[in-house]
Amino acid sequence: MTSAHDGAHTPGSPGGRTAAGATPQGDPGPVPPARTVEDVDRTPSSLHDLEDAVHQLEHDAEHRPPPAGTTTNLVVAGLVVALGAAALVGSLSLGAGSAGNPGSGTWPMILSLAIVVLGLALAASARGTSDTERFSRSSWLVLAGLGTMVVFVAVIEVIGFEIPAALLAFVWLRFLGGEGWRTSVITSIGVVVAFYLIFVAALSVPIPHLF
Amino acid sequence: MDLAPVLNGFTVVLEPTNLLYCLIGVVVGMLVGVLPGLGPAATIAILLPITIGLEPVTSVIMLAGIFYGAQYGGTITSVLLKLPGEASSVVTVFDGHALARQGKAGTALGIAAIGSFIGGTISIVALSFLAPVVASFALDFGPPEYTALALLGILLVATVSSGSRLKAIVAACIGLLLATVGRDAFTGGERFTFGNLNLADGLDFVPIAMGLFGLGEILYNLEERHTSVQAPAKVANVWPSRRDLRQSSGAIGRGSVLGFVLGILPGGGATLSSLAAYAVEKKRSKTPERFGKGAVEGVAGPETANNAAATSSFIPLLTLGIPANATMAVIFGALLIAGVPPGPRLVTDEPELFWGVVNSMYIGNILLLIMSIPLVGLFVKILRVRPAILAPITVLITLIGVYTVNNSTFDILLVIVFGVLGYLMKKVGFDPGPLLLAFVLGTLLEDSLRRSLLIFDGDALGFFGRPISGTLLVAFLLVAFLPLIGKALPRRRPAEHPSDTKELV
């Protein structure tokens, strides 16, 4: 979900404030206390208030994890700087060129420098940043989901798409989505059959398949 | 204005295939609007592989339908469940849901549908007149103008994107950097390919868009704790009363104009215009205390504006080749894949495509009005589909879909990598939108910058010697550095806020 927002002055959407009803897990200091739904209903008047209220609302609806601490922000800023630095080395090896005769590396070099500077600015403002989200226990779900996709791409050339696709659907339904065993088994088989009929039987897409 | 190509456009739309894809587009758009989770940008990204076998005009008609259809659909969940299905329908919640609690859900949905229809239609008419003018103006643009325009466009999108502005600009720079991967158009030398043959021709747009927007969004949603969705309120009598209509007619008029204007600006678009329309209505109202407690104008204004903006945001894309927001960046990609580079020549060189797409929006809006008023009950039922069931289906569509583009497993791998990147970016507060937009414009920007520097003999001040590029660059510098100067001034005061609002609008 993207939404218009002037993030320079207010915390951004993910984890801006603690969702009403979520348990604040040791929030870093200056975060305001949880707002309630009534606060939103107070109806904002200026565009600025309105944006705040909108973020609050999106937040309430989505139950996101709480914001992360300064360390995470510093790590993120550090990664940005490192990326910029690596790209800078790469661009210089391509030849920096000059303004009158720009070379292969000129434009990437300008960009890398910009990334390094912006990364340093991020590091400087790490303390006041609250739009970074904490990695919580539910982040393991993401890793598990990722795992199923990696398995999918690793074996598709060998055994076709049917088995890994059914496996992926089953894991997502049963373990990531919390559906019942029966729903999960039936849906994952149904999905694979439907995909087979659409992609292989009807459209004859050359996707590797077993049958 | 020459009417022949405009009328010709209608013949294009009325071809059965195009009508069918227009219908598919608006139905899909309506569905993604209703279902919380995936936005229109993500959906369009995921459906990119489908468009590859299609005629360019057909595919853009469908993708455009998804985009403006989502503006209609997002209203339904905002009103009935207080869950905005779409970022641009968030403000609708304030009054729309209040109306629903008073048993007037039908009124809110009806007014929103009528407002959206009127806003959309006014916007299409205005687009039909304005777009050719802008395009003919832009025909004389040379490399310096394009350099300045692309820079300003990317910066504006980054400025109004969600989350921190600094982070959005970092994301944009990374997008520009990714665009440099592959063969250098000037020297033919390889850049950042690490000897990988798959990267020699540069990174493909489709896996990046599908990964960043599609998979990234799905992975990000995995972490949401799903509360049980309450049963939506019964919807009776969708036709608003005469009194409601009279009350909201002003709001619909103002919303159309506001939406059209804000939609054209890079970074504007549907979300910003719905916010601005709500603020305007509340400010103008003689009884502002009714807002938030079920004021019809509070639904009519933003819903009209977001649809008008969705339509007018096609203007910069189709006339200048500069996408105004993330969704337009994906459609830009679709046009490139179809072999039709968007730009000022599109109106004259590809009149059938241009007018076909524009005129299809009339049909699409009529279809949407039909779906949102008599058939609204059907879409309310769809709310019962659980996100947990949709997620694996979407993942599989993405993984298999991206494979079908080039029949390459490397593309599946790429989509997963960018899915992880999209997830991590959202997690730590970077909006992936500016990255994709910058990636799309990266080649154009670098090419025109290098050409300009050659023209100016290395003198960067040459940009300021040409009126258009000079003006655009001054605007770029103002947008980039004014906030910095504001920050350098002593401690923040509450008085700072009005300037914020100005910067936004």
TrEMBL record, chain A:
The chain crosses the membrane at residues 74-94, 106-128, 140-173, 185-205. InterPro entries: DUF1468. The keyword ATP-binding does not apply. Residues 75-208 form the DUF1468 domain. Keywords: Membrane, Transmembrane, Transmembrane helix. It comes from the Bacteria. Residues 1-44 are annotated as: Disordered. This is Tripartite tricarboxylate transporter TctB family protein. It comes from Blastococcus saxobsidens.
TrEMBL record, chain B:
Keywords: Membrane, Transmembrane, Transmembrane helix. The chain crosses the membrane at residues 20-48, 109-134, 146-162, 168-186, 257-280, 317-340, 360-380, 412-428, 468-485. InterPro entries: DUF112_TM (IPR002823). Coiled coil: none annotated. Residues 19-437 form the DUF112 domain. Pfam families: TctA. This is Putative tricarboxylic transport membrane protein.
